[in-house]
Amino acid sequence: xxxxxxxxxxxxxxxxxxxxxxxxxxxxxxxxxxxxxxxxxxxxxxxxxxxxxxxxxxxxxxxxxxxxxxxxxxxxxxxxxxxxxxxxxxxxxxxxxxxxxxxxxxxxxxxxxxxxxxxxxxxxxxxxxxxxxxxxxxxxxxxxxxxxxxxxxxxxxxxxxxxxxxxxxxxxxxxxxxxxxxxxxxxxxxxxxxxxxxxxxxxxxxxxxxxxxxxxxxxxxxxxxxxxxxxxxxxxxxxxxxxxxxxxxxxxxxxxxxxxxxxxxxxxxxxxxxxxxxxxxxxxxxxxxxxxxxxxxxxxxxxxxxxxxxxxxxxxxxxxxxxxxxxxxxxxxxxxxxxxxxxxxxxxxxxxxxxxxxxxxxxxxxxxxxxxxxxxxxxxxxxxxxxxxxxxxxxxxxxxxxxxxxxxxxxxxxxxxxxxxxxxxxxxxxxxxxxxxxxxxxxxxxxxxxxxxxxxxxxxxxxxxxxxxxxxxxxxxxxxxxxxxxxxxxxxxxxxxxxxxxxxxxxxxxxxxxxxxxxxxxxxxxxxxxxxxxxxxxxxxxxxxxxxxxxxxxxxxxxxxxxxxxxxxxxxxxxxxxxxxxxxxxxxxxxxxxxxxxxxxxxxxxxxxxxxxxxxxxxxxxxxxxxxxxxxxxxxxxxxxxxxxxxxxxxxxx
Length: 654
Fold this sequence. Notes:
Elements: H1 2-30, H2 37-69, E1 87-93, H3 98-111, E2 118-124, H4 129-145, E3 152-156, H5 163-175, E4 181-184, E5 190-191, H6 193-205, E6 209-213, E7 217-218, H7 224-235, H8 237-248, E8 259-262, H9 263-269, H10 288-298, E9 302-305, E10 312-314, H11 320-335, H12 348-380, E11 387-390, E12 393-396, H13 403-430, H14 432-437, H15 441-474, H16 493-517, H17 522-533, H18 535-542, H19 545-553, H20 560-563, H21 567-578, H22 587-593, H23 595-607, H24 616-627, H25 636-643, H26 646-653
Parallel strand pairs: 1-2, 1-4, 2-3, 6-9, 7-10
Antiparallel strand pairs: 4-8, 5-10, 6-8, 11-12
Helix pairs in contact: 1-2, 1-13, 2-8, 2-12, 2-13, 3-4, 3-21, 4-22, 4-23, 7-15, 7-19, 10-12, 11-15, 12-15, 13-15, 15-17, 16-17, 16-18, 22-23, 24-26
């Protein structure tokens, strides 16, 4: 595809030229009295990071150009005849809010109007017995409400081998042969019926396409942090997605959810290897989606991104803490790709996707090191006017000021960092429908300014946290993959202080050292220091749903789902609100006390027998305690052992 090749070479040339100009400008400043070792390191770090932000800048500008010119970002034909294909919509879950999950499934089902070409699968990996039983009950309830022709299946996997990728693999091995396509969702994902039908028609008409990724828009949060992320996703996200789609063409990437996959291709080529060695770099591949896309492309299949398709949604983390907790898992998964990026046979675009994922986290410690080296260089630079001898007479040499060059570099860096936001904001303001959907021009501009201030303060907090993640992972520290916290809530101040005091302390120490040894450079570091010094109040206040509502009332951070009508979101929200979750119900106990719940559970156990490693003597003891009503001291493991063994449950019944 020569046009794709030309775009890629143009992109690479612009990044290289921008980086070269920036590096030469800094070199002109540093070389005046010769380069010492810290300055050589400073120049090298600057080259890497200036190139990184240059790539992001030009990617956004390419996306803006593609959208402005109306370029076809998904140049695929779309069938018009009714599809005869069968599609499975998969919802893998792991200890999630049961009401939210099943409300989302019902909302998607309703938007499809019971289309017989779609079947639904709830694929549970839940390890909490309360979630497990609640899922079974909610599945039975929903089955009773849906038409008899609707196909809604539930499976609980008793051993979570391979995490989400293993969950999908288990589906493919057991039911994949029944379907042409599968749409993979996350627990917080939603997709409109029209988008799902269009994806099927696109797959039908393009038999060499294995995967189409629809970038999800962030929705559904009421906390201030969540609303800021939603606004950024809605205004800036389309520009970056368009740039990616315009450059990657049929050699695209996969984000693990909100995508349709050709089952046959995925089963033949999407299987993941188990890396040799122990975690964090060995064992199961955590960030599986990038690797699965790379394997499909290697096998000759096409992988596309469809940024203009719309109708794809997910929820952002509600707080800074949840965001960084998720980032810790993603960091380990992306750094694990260091062992995959040079794998035999991968296409260059796939290697670049893996490298960009690695760099998204490796850049944080590099930025931190750059700042440290810069501060040391500023603090050790000579302030006295230099002189030389002419014979025996000292001749004063006037100091050369490099303020203009440094200001130009700072301005260029700010342009690369904030230029895409400005371009995306102006493009949104220039589009009447989009401007109105974000609350109007004035509200949109105020929101963009506030978002930029917040992201500037949050950036050094994220940098310090991600640097620590990278450091601990390199030391061999492994992290689990627990359930995500998706509920809006105001974080207790003591909890926030306990988590962010290291950031605040780092800000205080850095401020003191700069004031003592390099007072003239303190002004350059104020934006970074402010974020660290304000880390605790920033995390606490941004978690507030109340402040989120205040912002909404002031028309800040509005997004189209709040100002317009999106049926799948409205239906999911209405269904979730209509079913208040009863936190006091003891769901595991219901298996013992309610005949209908027990009968359902035993039936599902027969369909999917559990592998129970608990000793028979221990099972007998648990059954005896349950029969006598002595379950108040049961641990999660006790309940899981008892609920996984049909014979023990029958003994309790008897």
